[in-house]
Amino acid sequence: MKDEILRVQNEALAMIHAANDERSLDEARVVSLGKKGSLTALSMAMKDVPKEQKVEIGQLLNGARAAITASLEEKQLALQNITDRASVAGIDATLPARALHTGGLHPLTLLRERAVGILRRMGFALADGPEIEDEFHCFDALNTPADHPARNVKDTFYFDSGKLLRTHTSSVQVRMMEKTIPPLRIIAPGTAYRRDEIDSTHLSAFHQLEGLYVDRDVSLPDLKGTLEAFLRELFGAQTAVRFRPHFFPFTEPSFEIDVKLEVKGQAPRWIEVAGCGMVDPAVFEAVCQSRGDRKYDPEQVTGFAFGMGLERLAMIQWGIRDIRLLIENDVRFLRQFA
Ligand code: PHE
């Protein structure tokens, strides 16, 4: 019996040693340790071993099983290593890695996100309105008379229905006042449309950022302080800001805002960046009429509004000479911002 155990053990180890793939190794396992395997058969024969030899034979059997199992595991690992190495054999780890092509945000998006981020920190909430507007929200409620040039078919895209593509984002002011009671502090970035000839400074579809603050006792210093702080954060703490009297139908008094900046490679000069003013009482009256209450009674509330062109801000920020670069989607241009 002892010789038999040693013979079976050596036979199994020899088989394992000779195995050169998973299949032959598995066969070696079945032949020795399997249900009908040689070592299994010897284990079953234990019951016929005389009592006084049981301990010794048992130990031999256990030793043989342990040796075979260990050898199987070792060979299994060795075979696995060979397959692993084969699967990377053709790879040259010294070659340079292939470059990743990641996209980037469009400069207008970058600019808008920065501007919106600054104003949100100042307490303005994001608002939104339709690009296809009616004359009431785009003009009438904004105190713009029927014969105002901006309402001309030569300047504005009209639909047969009488609706139009909004010529500015100021229509969102009216819609938000219709929906919400004061105090109201909103910004509305969005697209505006004008029948302009396209050239290096004009597009027929462009982007604006509108702002409106209505509360009791909102005053001109609030407007100046807010916009100066905004523009200095956007363009740098040294930026000089000036308010130049102007006219808009929906604000009184009204201003255009200029910043003094050095656009790359040019001498510093004043550049117009925004329109603004104190909300005209006529606008509050129109809103009260439309709402059917007096929540925006011009005797009770005041407000300021502002609007700016995002293309123009982006052109100033990066010294872009031609506005059309912003819509041509030329990757050689866009790549600089990624
Ligand atoms: N809506 C004006 C424009 O498109 C800008 C503006 C907004 C002016 C708000 C005053 C107040 O030019």
List its salient traits:
338 residues, BirA Bifunctional Protein, domain 2, 2 domains, two-stranded antiparallel sheet, 11 helices, 41% helix, elongated, binds phenylalanine
Detailed description of the structure:
The protein is of the alpha+beta class and 338 residues long. The protein folds into two domains: 2-87; 107-337, BirA Bifunctional Protein, domain 2, CATH 3.30.930. The chain has eleven helices and nine strands. The protein has helices spanning 2-18, 22-33, 38-44, 54-87, 107-121, 135-138, 171-179, 220-235, 281-291, 310-318, 331-334; strands at residues 125-126, 132-133, 164-165, 184-193, 205-215, 240-248, 251-261, 269-279, 302-309. It has a seven-stranded mixed sheet, with helices on both faces. The protein has a two-stranded antiparallel ribbon with strand order 2-3. Strand 7 (251-261) and strand 8 (269-279) form a beta hairpin. Helix 1 runs parallel beside helix 4. The protein binds phenylalanine.
